[in-house]
Structure prediction request, 299 residues.
Amino acid sequence: MNVDLGDLNAFVTVASARGFRDGARLTGTSASALSEAVRRLETALGVRLLHRTTRSVRPTEAGERLLERLKPAFTEVEAALDVVNGFRDKPAGTLRLNVPISAARLVLPSIVPPFLAAYPEITLDVIAEDGFVDMLAAGCDAGIRYEERLEQDMVAIPIGPRTQRFAAAAAPAYLDREGRPKHPRDLLKHRCLRGRFASGTMPPWEFERDGESLTVDVSGPLTVRLGASADLAVDAAIGGAGVVYLFEDWLRPHMNSGALEPILERWWPRFSGPFLYYPGRRLLPAPLRAFVDFIRASS
Prediction:
């Protein structure tokens, strides 16, 4: 049976990503090229491997069986090829990271430039999204998450600030007009700009002071997708639309400029900073190993 290894790899990519477009985004190729490769493979094998609809792609029973056998094999091939990197002066290759939008905005900017300068033959491919995804199924080598969302079978090392805070702020003109809250419950009388997770959940605003913790289920004229549309809420707050509640580091430039005024600062809750996480396998790809070493040396 004459089967092209590239076509097998295309099938693994599409089946793992559950889509031709997502597979193309991960591999830097086109969706049409992946589709043609899978079509050739199905023709060579004489069996359909993928169910295709306008909204989704999923493996058939035959495709699932083939995927189960191929994924470990391709992982071993990648590990074998990566051994060659040990004979280079500098590690090379692509490192794919899956990170929340907040980490792409607040954590990576201080890390990426010096890392790329130290390892000029490594290419970083950063996928920023706030949905809870399977990092390996998405074709990524590692990711960044906060502690409550870490998977137990992953290795995790601290990356970025070890402590962060959520902050509340509003435009001075808004506060002059509506009054300055003295207690978190005062926010129930204010126009608050809320955020919604990708799951559809709208989290309450949390506050703490001197061992006292409380949540406030605020309401207001605007709700945005957390991460992806957070800047819209910030801009609306600057324009006087209401109170915004977000990462302190996200709001800090606007508070420093005076466009936003911090409120209830003594109540801002602290939480643990993010972690770089990756599978606990013995042999790491050279680009990931270099990144892990770089993060550890920088901490």
Notes: DSSP finds ten helices and 15 strands in the chain. The two ends are 52 Å apart (CA to CA). The chain has a mean pLDDT of 88.
